[in-house]
Amino acid sequence: MVGKLLIGSVFLPLLLILSISGFILVKSIVANQSDIVPQEEQNYTLSAYMGNPNDWTTYQNQNLGYTIKHPQAWKVQTNARRSLNTIDSYEASLGPKVKLTITVNKFILIPKSAKILQLGSNQFHLLEDKGNYKSAVLEKDQLYYQVELEQDGFFENSKQFRNAFNIFLLKFQLTGQQNSSSPNPTPKS
After folding, report:
1. What is the tens place of the pLDDT at every residue in 2-52?
2. How far apart are CA 103 and CA 175, in angstroms?
3. How far apart are CA 30 and CA 13, in angstroms?
4. What pLDDT shows up at residue 166?
5. Residues 117 and 136 sit within 8 Å (Cβ to Cβ)
6. What is the largest CA-CA distance in the chain?
7. I need a surface site. Which of 56, 82, 117, 181 has the fewest CB within 10 A?
8. Phi, psi torsion values for 34, nearest 5 degrees
9. How far apart are CA 81 and CA 61, in angstroms?
């Protein structure tokens, strides 16, 4: 009986120490769990590949008197959107992940509640401000220049998306050189 008591007196403290160590280990893992993201839940962002805005490609539309800058690797398409109200459109995209669209319209109804964004010398009216879509319009000489940015997991968070949209708005410039007899718009390097 003394042998069983001796084994119990050694075994019980050992069991208690192991239990406390296990509790501390589990507690530290749970506390740091926010740092551990399962592989399938990681959000891989491509927005780092936009590059320096000062090195972006400049698209110039001499007919309607505007320029816009966007990353060089983006695929471009002109006049993808056509309607009775739409005079011209220009799209630059990186696959289905992100798309920048400039649409020149004869008319756009701007809500009185639209937030005004003063960026550089341009005053835009914010039409849409959603997590995956932003749209603003600038009115000049009875034309409405609409800048839209759509994304599907391209930007890491809403702040990064909003900042990118503001950079595109800053990179949109009216040249004041509208020329209806000019040849097709040309991209500039």
Report:
1. 666 666 677 777 777 877 877 776 666 655 544 443 333 334 344 566 888
2. 16
3. 26
4. 93
5. yes
6. 110
7. 181
8. -65, -25
9. 16
Let me know: does 182 contact 63? Beta carbons within 8 Å.
yes
Q: Where are the beta strands (DSSP E) in 43-185?
A: 57-61, 66-70, 75-78, 86-94, 98-105, 115-119, 122-129, 133-140, 143-151, 173-174
d(CA 52, CA 57): 11
Contact 168, 149 (CB under 8 A): yes
How far separated are the first and last CA of the chain, in Å rounded? 92
Say if residues 66 and 74 touch (Cβ distance below 8 Å): no
DSSP 8-state symbol, 109? -
Rounded distance between C-alpha atoms, residue 23 and residue 135, angstroms: 52
Alpha-carbon distance of 83 to 135, in angstroms, equals 18
Instruction: Provide the residue type at 86 as one letter.
Output: T
Greater model confidence, 44 or 69: 69
With CA atoms as reference, report the closest residue to 49 among 160, 179, 189, 188. Answer: 160
- Kindly state the helix (H) or strand (E) to which residue 188 belongs, with its residue range: strand 186-188
